[in-house]
Design brief:
Oligomer: heterodimer
Structural class of chain A: alpha+beta
Bound molecules: flavin-adenine dinucleotide, FE2/S2 (inorganic) cluster
CATH topology of the largest domain in chain A: Enolase-like, domain 1
Distance between the termini of chain B: 45 Å
Radius of gyration of chain B: 15 Å
Strand content of chain B: 5-15%
CATH architecture of the largest domain in chain A: 2-Layer Sandwich
Strand content of chain A: 15-25%
Shape of chain A: globular
Shape of chain B: globular
CATH superfamily of the largest domain in chain B: Beta-grasp domain
Order of helices and strands of chain A: EHEEEHHHHHEEHEEEEEEHHHH
Structural class of chain B: alpha+beta
Chain lengths: ~280, ~160
């Protein structure tokens, strides 16, 4: 469909597209309405993953997938308002690829994969390779985002966002954490603090080292507070924030270190409590 | 482009709809339904809130063509003929209406909340109405109105 009309503008929930059109920043000659494409609204299991259609809204992620994807559901709850969550989709968030998009950090932290479809077939790209620049993604003009693949949680997940007020805010910075207790891995995702959403690889490796050396996964042992501080610092170091109207670069780094420390402490507490239950 | 859909139970169509035209524009300028207000056109204020196939959305963010074949309910469709809906009655009685610009959107959003959560807490009301901005009332009376409507609807 897209191949036949490479210049047509895809529209899903319209919560980004319509703002552009209403303000005359874009005047499309033709649009492709994805909201009426039923295949994009489906989700289901596939080889241990969940394959979720690009058109599934935030409201549905929360109500239908909240137990299996707690991190993405937490992020979805912070998006806009009920009206926006009822309409806005993860596919649209990926299409816009704004560094502030709230779906990106949990997708990165859980090593999600984006599925692109065209008449030439499908290709699957890890989320971390999908964001290629500010509001730029790896999708070709003849492609559409069909779905994303993400593993159901194997351990605690967290998402935390700093905004200027409580509701309806674009993130000043945000952080997502996935603990994979099956593989004993730590996953991270940072939003709004670099030209694209990014992961904090060094912070992940450092924390995996701490947990492995101490045998903490098996013991469900306590984490040294200094390790948490170091983790926070490494997350902050992975960001390349800028000064803008929502906050200075220095503030963003500081806030990220705090978010990372805090979310890790929450997630690890949850993991330790599970041993008692 | 011609767009045909149902609004408040009636089949309607609009001709010569431009590719980028919003559902809000069609409702107001082509169908004369002025209940849904046009304030921000960017999803921020909620004054254009309507139902599309039973889902609460901002009409300013729905492309006209996306309304094709859908079932739309606007604030005009909430009342039962000339009898106000309990949510509307409660807004009037609680003094939740000042200039009234935000009111239609709030009515639809509050209506949606009470359909899903008949006895909402104050926190739940605040969350449900987070996408509706009121510049006049300071929200306290709006919260009162929603509580009042919930009580009345529970007792009928
Ligand atoms: C008031 C308001 C508050 C908001 N708050 C937040 C917030 O808190 N956090 C946040 O992250 N975002 C927020 N947003 C932005 C927006 O809601 C999200 O980015 C949302 O995920 C967009 O989804 P959509 O389906 O509406 O996308 P659309 O507007 O339909 O599309 C967005 C882009 O993606 C493309 N696209 C959509 N689907 C596909 C597909 N399947 N294949 C290829 N391209 C596609 C479109 O062509 C377009 O370029 C807010 C927006 C508004 C208006
Ligand atoms: S006019 Fe639609 S939300 Fe403000
Ligand atoms: S009563 Fe005036 S904006 Fe709400």
């Amino acid at each position: 469909m897209k191949a036949a009309h490479p210049d047509a503008l895809p529209i899903a929930g319209g919560t980004d597209v319509m703002v552009e059109i209403n303000f005359d920043r874009s005047r499309p000659d033709s649009v492709i309405d994805l909201a009426s494409v039923a295949e994009l609204d489906d989700w289901g299991p596939e080889d241990g993953y969940l394959r979720i259609g690009a058109g599934v809204t935030y409201t549905r992620i929360i109500s239908e997938l909240g137990d299996r994807l707690p991190g993405l559901a937490m992020a979805s709850r912070t998006v806009g308002s009920p009206q926006i969550r009822n309409r806005g989709t993860v596919g649209g968030n990926l299409g816009s690829a704004s560094p502030a998009g709230d779906a990106h950090p949990p997708l990165l932290a859980s090593k999600a994969v984006v599925e692109l479809a065209s008449s030439a077939g499908i290709r699957r790209i890890p989320a971390r390779d999908f964001y290629v620049g500010p509001k730029k993604n790896a999708m070709r003009k003849d492609e559409l985002i069909a779905a994303f693949l993400i593993e159901p949680s194997n351990g605690p997940q967290q998402f935390s966002k700093v905004g200027t007020r409580n509701a309806m805010v674009i993130a000043v910075c945000s952080f997502a954490l996935t603990l994979d207790a099956k593989r004993k891995r730590v996953g991270t995702g940072i939003g709004s603090a670099a030209p694209t959403p990014v992961t904090a690889g060094e912070a992940e490796a450092f924390m995996q080292g701490v947990l492995d050396e101490g045998g903490l996964w098996e013991k469900r042992g306590e984490i040294d507070p200094s390790a948490l501080v170091r983790f926070g610092d490494l997350v902050a170091a992975a960001a390349r924030p800028i000064d803008d109207v929502r906050g200075t670069a220095a503030y963003r780094r500081h806030a990220l270190a705090v978010l990372a420390r805090r979310t890790f402490a929450w997630a690890w507490d949850e993991y330790r409590r599970k041993s008692v239950a | 482009m011609k767009v045909t859909f149902t609004v408040n139970g009636q089949r309607v169509s609009a001709d010569e709809v431009w590719e980028g035209e919003s559902l809000l524009y069609i409702l107001r300028e082509r169908l004369g339904l002025y209940g849904s207000k046009n304030a921000c056109e960017q999803g921020e204020c909620g004054s254009c809130s309507v139902y599309v196939d039973g889902t609460l959305v901002c009409a300013c963010l729905v492309l006209g063509g996306q309304a094709q074949g859908r079932d739309i309910v606007t604030v005009e469709g909430i009342a039962d003929g000339h009898a106000l809906h309990p949510v509307q009655q409660a807004f009037v009685e609680a003094g939740a209406v000042q200039c009234g610009f935000c009111t239609p959107g709030l009515i639809v959003a509050a209506h949606d909340l009470l359909r899903h959560t008949p006895e909402p807490t104050t926190v739940e009301i605040r969350e449900a109405l987070a996408g509706n901005i009121c510049r006049c009332t300071g929200y306290a009376k709006i919260l009162d109105a929603v509580h009042l409507a919930a009580e009345r609807m529970a007792s009928t």
